[in-house]
Design goal:
globular, disordered C terminus, single chain, 47% strand, 129 residues, Jelly Rolls, 2 helices, mainly beta, 10-stranded mixed beta sheet, Ethanolamine utilization protein
Length: 129
């Protein structure tokens, strides 16, 4: 079985708007075709200055900050100013608030099925791995 390569994905993939006026998220790949019982999906999340995004995870997710900055907090009161290179694990059931004074870009891998292809992919094909 061969691997899949997404050349320059961080710069070329533009995730669609998903919430408020400033939150963008798009899946670029999934293992769903090869492992429908325990799929993982990956993509980019971008937040621009504006309305905070509050998200309750229904799956486990790992995220690495690849550009910019986020202020991330959870329902326990834990707060982190996240910058490029920081890695996070968000357990299923956690309620996370994302905000930024500038912008932030994260790459994520979540233990879930791919989101709707039509709403998540703009100008680029999604290829299952």
């Amino acid at each position: 079985m061969s691997f899949t390569h997404y050349s320059n994905a961080q710069a070329s993939f533009k995730p669609p708007l998903i919430a408020n006026e400033n939150a963008f998220l798009g899946d670029i790949s999934t293992s769903e075709k090869n492992d429908p019982k325990a799929p993982i999906s990956a993509g980019f999340y971008r937040l621009e200055k504006g309305t905070p995004l509050v998200y309750e995870y229904t799956y486990h997710e790992m995220k690495i900050i690849v550009d910019g900055e986020f202020d991330i907090s959870d329902e326990t009161g834990q707060k982190v100013h996240a910058v490029k290179g920081d890695v996070f694990y968000f357990p299923k059931g956690s309620k996370i608030t994302f905000t930024t004074e500038t912008f932030g870009l994260g790459f994520f891998v979540g233990q879930r099925k791919v989101r709707s292809l039509q709403s998540m992919v703009t100008g680029r094909s999604l290829i299952n791995i």
